[in-house]
Amino acid sequence: MDQIFGVPTAAFMGQLMLGLVNGSFYALLSLGLAVIFGMLNIVNFAHGALYMTGAFFAWMLLNYAGVNYWFALLLAPVAVGLIGVIIEKTMLRWLHGLDHLYGLLLTFGLALLLEGVFREFYGSSGLPYELPEIFRGGFDLGFMFLPKYRAWVIFAAVFVCLATWFVIEKTKLGAYLRAGTENPNMVKAFGINVPLMVTLTYAFGVGLAGLAGVMAAPIYQVSPLMGSNIIIIVFAVVVIGGMGSILGSILTGLVLGLIEGLTKVFYAELSSTVVFIIMVIVLMFRPAGLFGREK
C-alpha cells in the first residue's frame, strides 16, 4: 500500500510514530502531575522546569563527568527527586490545607527561578546530547523506518506508566498512599509516618519528570525553554484525562500524542492547538475530565 488516506504511507506512519513518541512524554509527565495532585492536592507548575532539570543533569553528567546515558537514566531522576524533597520540606509543607492557588503560585515561581538559573549559565540555545551507541540506526519495517531510540522511548515510558498505575491502584502501598491523603489521622494510627509519605510521593512525582527529561535529551536539544514549551500541553492532558486520575493521564497522553501527529499529516496548521480544542470540548460536557470523578 503506497498511500493511506491519500498520504504516502511512509509519511503517514512517520508522523504517527512522532505522535506516539510525543504522547509517551505527555503520558509520563502528566502521570507525575496526576500522582502529585491526586495524592497531595498540589498543582505542581514546576513540573516542566524539573523535566528540563533532568535533561540538564543528564547532559552535565555526560559532558563533565563522562557518565553515560544508562547511569544518567538512574542518577538524574534521583537528583531531581532530591530537589523535590527539599521543595516539599522547606516550602510546600507550609501550604498543606490551603487553597490550590497558593501551591500553584509557589511552584510557578520556582519554575521561573529554575529556568532563569539555567538560562544564565547555558543561554537559551539548545545543547546536543549524544545518542547512545546501542540506539543508533533503526529497523526497516518496509512501510517505514523505525529509529531504535524512539522505539525504546515508547516502550520505556509505557512500562513506567503502567508499573506506577499498578503500584498505586493494586498494592497495599498504594492503598496507604490514597488513605493518607483522605484520612491522614487514621493512617497515623497504624504507625505510618504520613509526612514522610507525602515527601516521598512528591519526590517520586517530580522524579518521573526528571526521567522524562533524560529520555528526551537525545531527541530534543537540551534547553532551558524545553520545560515551558511542553508543560502547558501536559496540563491540558491532565485536565482532559481528569485531575488526579492516574490511568486517565496515561491513556489521554498517548492518545493525544497520536491525534497531534495525525493532525500534522492532514492539517499541520492545527497541530499546535488541537489539544486545547479537545480540552475545551471535553470540559463543556465533562468538567471533571474523561476519567475524573464528578463531585
Q: Could you say what the CATH architecture is?
A: Orthogonal Bundle
**SSE order, as H and E?**
EEHHHHEEHHHHHHH
Low-confidence segments: none
Percent of residues in beta strands?
under 5%
Query: Helical stretch count?
Result: 11
What's the multimeric state? single chain
Please give the CATH class.
Mainly Alpha
Give the end-to-end Cα distance, rounded to a whole number of Å. 49 Å
Main sheet properties: 2 strands, antiparallel
Q: CATH topology, anyone?
A: ABC transporter involved in vitamin B12 uptake, BtuC
Q: Averaged pLDDT, please? A: 88
Task: Tell me, briefly, the overall form.
Answer: globular
Helix amount:
over 70%
Q: Give the strand order, joined by hyphens, for the main sheet.
A: 1-2
Domain count: 1
* Spatial extent as radius of gyration: 19 Å
Give a count of the beta strands, DSSP E runs of length 2 or more: 4
Q: Which class of secondary structure composition applies to the elements?
A: mainly alpha
